[in-house]
Structure formats: C-alpha cells, structure tokens
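User: We ran a pulldown and think these components assemble together. Before we commit to crystallization trials, I'd like a predicted model of the whole complex to look at. Sequences follow.
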Amino acid sequence: MNLLAEPVGVAHYMVIGAIMFVTGAVCMATKRNALGVLMGIELVLNGANVNFVALGSEYLRPAQDGLGLDGQLIALFVIVLAAAEAAVALAITLNFYNNHMTVDVDQADELKG
Amino acid sequence: MAEFFDQYLWTWLAYLLAALVHATLLINVVAVGALIFIWMERKVAGRIQDRLGPTRVGGKFGWLQTLADGIKLIAKEDLMPAGADPLLFRAAPYISFCASFCAYLALPFAFGWWALSVNTAVFFIVAVIGLEVFGVILGGYASGSKWSLFGAMREAAQVVSYEVPLGLCVVVPVLIAGTMDLVTIGEMQSGWFTNWYVLHDPFTFITFWVYFTCAVASVNRAPFDLAEAESELVAGFLTEYSGLRWSYFFMAEYSSMFVVSGLASILFCGGWNGPIPLTHMLGIADSSNPVVHYLANLLGCLNLLGKAVFGVTFMMWVRWTLPRLRIDQVMTTCLKYCTPIAAVMFVGATGWKYLQLPSLNGLVPRRPMGEVREYWLASDQGGSMKSAPAIPPATVRRRPVHMEVR
Amino acid sequence: MAPINWHTFYFLLFALTAGVFAVAVAVTSNVVRMAFYLVLCLSATAGLFFLAGADFVGAMQIMIYVGGTLVLLIFGVMLTAQGPFISMKTRSGEWVLGLLAGGSLLAILISAAVGVRAWRPVELEEHSPQARVTASRLGMGLLGARVDQLDQSDKTLRAGMSGYLFPFEIISVHLLVVLIGAAYLARPKKRMRPGEETQA
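Assistant: Here's a predicted model for the assembly, 719 residues in total across the polymer chains.
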C-alpha cells in the first residue's frame, strides 16, 4: 500500500487532533510549572480546533455532509477565547508568583490548613 | 515546470527539483536584496554623515563591500557562551530568517507573479512578520546573558504593542478594497497615480504615515531598535552572537524591511501599477503575446521593487537622522499616539467610504470597480464553476505561469 | 509508482511536525524549550488549517496564537524565572498515572475517530479555486448573514442559521472585560508577607 497515494479523510485529522488533545491533557496533569500547565491548555484547545476545522472542511468530504462555515467560525471563537484565557491565566500566574515567589503549582496548598 | 521534469525523472525527484528552483528564486530575492541593502545602508549613512562610505572593494563605489563582509563572517569562529541553551541558541537565527522569508510566499511581485495565491494574503503577511520576534526573544533568552535578556524583553513588549496599530492601519485599505487578497487590492488601484489608496481621502493619507511608523517599529529599526540599543545594552539580543548566525539575524531584518515596504506599496501606493499607466496606454498589459506580456509584467515588477526600495531607503534615512527613543517613549508613541490615531483614521475612512464623499480616486476615470471584485457570492450560489455567472476578465485574465509550484 | 497525492503528502508533513512537537512539549521539563516546541506545533497546526481550506483560521492561528499568546507566555516565563533555565521535575509516579490515563484516553478517541464511517476518506472531485474564498463568507457569517446557507429549504434549520452576530458581540465585550481584568490582576502591589520590604 502506498501511503502517499491514499486520500486523507476527516478521520486522519481527528487522530492528530486526538494526539494533541491527549498530550495537552498529560501536560496539564504532570507539569508543576504553572506556565507549563497553561501550555497544556493551549494544546488541548488546539486539538479541539483541528477537529472543528476538519469537520467543516469541503476538501475532506462532500460539502452537504460537513459542518460548513460553522466549523471555521467556532474555531475562530475558540482562538479568540484562548487568547483571553491566556491573558487572565498569565495575570493569575504573576499574582501567584508575587505571593509565593515561585510558579510551582504544588506550593499552592494553603487551604489545607 | 514539474511536468517538464516529470518526463525525464522519477516523480518525486521532479517535484523536488521544481520546488527547489522556485525556492531558490525566492531565497535569492532575500539574500541578494540583503547584500544590496547593507551596501546601500553604509553608503546612505556615509552620505548623511558627510562621509564617503565604502569606496575600495570592487571598484569606485565599493559594490563588493558586503560580499567581503560576508566572507569575513563565514570565516569567523562560531562562539557559543558556556551558559547558553545550545538548542535554542542555535535555532533562534533560523526562526527569524524563516519567518521573514515566509512572508515572501504571499507577496505578489506583479500581476500573476506570486509564489502562492492566498485569499487572505494581507493577514498572512502581517501574521508571519510578527513571528520574527520569536527568534529574537528565544535568542536573547537562550544566550544566558543579561544584556541579551533585556533586549529580548524589550523586543517582546515592543512588538506585541506595535502589532495593534499596525493591524488597524492595514485594515483601512482592506476595508476600502473590500478584500484581503493583495492581487485584487493592487489591481483595484490601476490607472493613474490618483487611483492609489494613499490619495483616497485625507484619512488614508495619514494612515499611510502611521503604518510606516509602526512598520519601522515592528521590524526593529532605529529610532525604535530598543532590542539592540548599542549605547545601553552592548548589542542587546545580538550580544553573544557572532559569525554566520549573527548575519542570519541581519538578513532577516533587511528582508522584513523589504516586506513591510512592499506591503505598504501594494496597500497604499498602487503596487505594480506605475504613476502613469504606460502599459495600459500602449495596450501591452492585456496583450496575448507571451513575450510582450512578460515585458509588461517585468515593468510592473520593477515598479513594485522601486517603490519598496524607496521605502527601505526612507527607513535608512530615518535611522541616520533621528536619535533612538527611550523604552518608555517607544511605548508612549505606540499606545498614546499611534493606536488612537489609527483608530480615528479607521473610523474616518469608514465614514468617508460609507458616505461616498468625493475622492481623488475618482479624478481620472478608469475601469469600473466591480470588474476587479472577488466574485465569491456569485460562485457560492452557483455551486460549480460552470453554472456561475461569467467570470469578469480582470480576475481570470492572464493565468499565473511563473513561480507557482503546483 | 502511483502518483503522489499532494494533500496527503503535506498532511503527513504537518501532522508529523504537530504530533512530534506536541509530545515534545509534554516530555520536556525546561519551560522555555516547551514554549519553543509549542510554537512549532501550533505553526504546523496552522499549516493543517491551510490544508483543510481554512485560510483565514490558519492566518488567525499564526497571528493570535503564535504571535500573541505565545509571546505573552514567554514574557511570563521571563518575568517569573529565577534561575537562568528553570526546570521543575515531575515525580515518576505522576508520569505513570498521567501516561496511563492519557494512553487510555488516546485509545478511545482514536478508535472513535476511525470507527465512524462518515469520517473515512472519500475521493472528491477537484475543487475550483473559488471554493477557497472563505474570508468574506466568514465575515458575513459574523455579521449575521450565512451566505453558504442561502438555499437551505428547511424552515426550522434556516432560523437557526442566522449567523453569529450575537456571539460576536458577546466575545467583543468579553475581550474588553478580560483586558481590564488582567491589567487589574497583574498590577504591581505590595507584597503580602510581613517583614519584607515593600517593592513596587
């Protein structure tokens, strides 16, 4: 089977989206640096975006089956919201750093009493 | 071209060769352009400071000075500080260079002469130019030196801020043209120089200057070159770089100078349309003869290059005339002056267009605007190409034959 | 040799770049290198968007995500780094747990993606270049007019496809609120701990 001669479908895009989503989730779970957690979130959002764009694409399956423009529009909203989320998360991280002198999220355990 | 090679070679090799030829063509625009600009910069600087500039290497005007410099840089020892992050330190110059090179992909040089026809070319170019900052930030951070870190921090703050007014200024001609396709924007300004968008109304005229200021700032040229302020930061993010890596940063800088000037000339100054529509007057622009047609395109290309080189020269003039701003003054210029002015100009140009006030663009009659519009709505409803209404001549006229890889 | 399907070729190129660097982000502990890998991963994703015919979303991805958000992230790294190259090691127990959970999630997602028949690759006829013109249609969609759904015959479906003007407005106001809120949160203030000297 010649890999390069086969057409690409929505499933291919969804696999790469799934890989990005899962690495992002693992990144969020294992990183101790608050900014690392933030990068994990970006990966997760991008994995979702890949799926939206693939489902809306006219190049991957007939236009009448696809999401059409909705896919791209939702992806746009996700990107904009991700920018807003990053700004707020960065502000929180800076505040955290000001209070604890570190960005290690494991140090935020004051509520344990 | 790929089909031509395909007759003699394996398929993959044929495509590789065709791609290489096209990539080499584009890379040479960057590399040779940088060579000439660096020589020009030294000459301009010399003349402004009442000196001669380079005079020895390669004849009377020192033509080959940059080449000699290049050989020196290649032969230089490649140093890396012990405290540096080796991977990022090595990768940073290439990121800068690749980013500024990618912008050339979407920049049309004449009607039909572009590497890649992107529907959102304006947006793409502005986005990709913004990527160049990554090389600078990573290089500055990975050097492990305080001067470099300071330079990188300033660069990050400066570029992120200046992208706002730059984007606002770019939107104005996009709004007047009603498309983000650079080819369409350029074609809509064909005819006499009164058709250029810089003369559309007073607001666009001011927008052009604001755009140019922000462009100078976003490519880090003096008086905004805070990232490598020699007087305070040794050489900023370049402190630890030497030899070829250092020169990659410089090539990136000069090529992005050229890109923003080229973008300015297409958006505001008619692009490949000269001040006097000679090719249209002589009737060779629409000629079916390929050679004549090629000559007309060559003339257009020279027009664009001339305007862009003029922009670059202007930047050099500014650099050797004005003193460097302080970092707080740079931010003040951006946030308190450029952004509000650009916003007001945006509203003003929108109002001018909406109220259909008289504009210099209507002074000399030209082809009706509708001819060069994108026909997206019509093609959407029709579904396939065949049932769509007849495509106007301006959009399908002269299929691009050059520099298209696929 | 069968003719090369260029869509597949570029898809593999971008997908491999995106996937490899996504994994690299997860396994690196140096936060600046993570940011660098993330840049490459997100740029490759933008390439995937271009490939799927979403030019505008791809350019938006480069501009806002890579050019804006990640610069902000690196800025944050610089502001909070104490040593020259900080790295915080993850305990191996967390790695095992994370990989277990992640691996099972990945297995489920991939089996779901491959399992649906409608998502399998299909042979499509060549598209006209007009199909790529998306920016104007997206703009109209955001303004409340869906030019791609003009021939929708179903009345109920048509009512639901009136565009995205309202979400667009909400998001604009949301961005403004976020801007003010972030500036308020990150403003310089006195340190909370007693005994330390105040710092601007």
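Chain B touches chain C through 49 residues (CB under 8 Å). That may be worth checking against your pulldown data before setting up trials.

User: Thanks, that helps.
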